[in-house]
Amino acid sequence: MDAIIIGSGIAGLAASVRLACAGHEVHVYESNNYPGGKLTEITIEGYRFDAGPSLFTLPQLVEELFALAGENPKQYFEYIQIEKACNYFYEDGTTFSAYHNRETFANELGHTFEEKDILSVFKQLDLASFRYKLTAPIFLEYSLHRLKNYVNMNTLKGIANSFKLNLFQSMNDENTSVVKDKRLVQYLNRFATYNGSSPYMAPALLNMIPHLEQNIGSFFPINGMHQITQSIYNLAKSVGVIFHFGKKVDEILVTNNKASGIKIQDSTHKATIVVSNADIHSTYKQLLPLQKHPEKILSQEKSSSALIFYWGITSLFPKLDLHNILFSADYKGEFQHIFTDKTIDNDPSIYINITSKYKPDDAPDGCENWFVMINVPNNQGQNWDKLIVEAKANIIAKINRVLHTNIEQLIAVEEILDPRTIESKTSSFAGALYGNASNNMFAAFLRHKNFSSTIKGLYFCGGSVHPGGGIPLCLNSAKIVAKIIAEDYPTHS
């Protein structure tokens, strides 16, 4: 069948490979002149930056796309496992590296923390592993919206152990009940930001998030995160997917309650299957203006956004690694500013990603490429120009204070990405990075399903729909869509 995919984000690219391998003729329409959505790159005067997602986990989700196409993934996509998940810096002078090896991690924590506190952290990491293994087959790998997916042993096992999921406490409440050292609680709480939520509101079930990074491991593509986009894009072309760049879709056509194609300006393009990899809010409001909209889902609280400074730094910082966090002194206050006050705290936690640590040609000799990010509210019409100036001053002051440097005089090049430009470049509503926030216990069920119940042949993938944002979940959403299409059109499975 003819299939059209709107958008070439990581989920759209993966869906195109899966549908092409299933025998469909696939056309991808992308408004930008490049593939990847948020997962792209920029180059400034000899400095290369991965523009968007910087953490890579579950590489097998990329590898299986190559296997599906009958290719050896190692010939097209190379990566390494990194020793440290992240370096952490606190205002009181505490520092530690979160090593993937548990014994090494325990020894590292032993320099600063008491044994009982270290054991309590590992207790939470073990619980994260249990919860992930219990819930992933139910919530992350299949549609929540098809009854047959609930009638199996995985679901029955999940129901039997549901009391261990702790749906009624927040992440912070559970972490503080188990871990007594506030610094280690802050370390565990930070994983709420992986889906743009607050640890003081998101359910304790989400304390399973660190399992991927800390227990399984994090990885680095040898040519940077953009290699993920490029490798899947090249694979898609090799299996016959046709890409149309610079083509902004104006409308999804619906005939007799069936998707029938798309409209771009005055031209129409017919298809039996239409998959939207665009933000779900934009999909309905802009591409389906005449159809009934799921207002309850679309009106849900949106996730946080990001303010990113891409800095070329004319010095080397041996204390820093690929991933680094400089924590705020008042974490609860920081999230209060983001989700309640809709502004930026004067002391935000700072994430610094430096790919030149592992890919030296990302910066000139003796220099580093700093991706400096803070979590900020999504775009509600704030005075971003003013907020950016204030935030930059606070970020520089904090880096200087914590790292004992004068970073401003080392900044050779700069580019800025804020919620407004995130929205304009990626069509993410309000610049929210993950669609809806997960700040309540029902959040998993309030994400839009991967198919339309009222329009046959219309499907959805990407970070704003089930199962959520981030590279692994986006790749899973593509897999879920491909499964559902195979079920809906069994002769083409």
Q: How would you describe the overall organization of this protein?
A:
With 493 residues, the chain is of the alpha/beta class. Among the domains are: 2-40 and 55-80 and 222-300 and 441-492, FAD/NAD(P)-binding domain, CATH 3.50.50; 119-215, Guanine Nucleotide Dissociation Inhibitor, domain 1 (Orthogonal Bundle), CATH 1.10.405. Helix content is 34%, strand content 19%. It has helices spanning 10-21, 60-68, 102-110, 115-140, 153-160, 171-178, 182-189, 210-216, 226-238, 280-287, 295-298, 331-341, 384-403, 419-426, 471-488; strands spanning 2-6, 25-30, 41-44, 47-50, 79-81, 84-89, 95-99, 219-221, 242-245, 251-255, 258-264, 267-270, 273-276, 305-313, 323-326, 350-353, 368-376, 411-417, 458-460. The strands form 5 sheets. Strands 7-6-15-16-17-14-18 form a 7-stranded mixed sheet. Helix 6 (171-178) runs antiparallel to helix 7. The longest helix is centred in the first third of the chain and has 26 residues, at 115-140. The radius of gyration is 22 Å and the shape is globular. The termini are close together.
Could you provide a short overview of the structure?
Among the domains are: 196 residues, FAD/NAD(P)-binding domain (3-Layer(bba) Sandwich), CATH 3.50.50; 97 residues, Guanine Nucleotide Dissociation Inhibitor, domain 1.
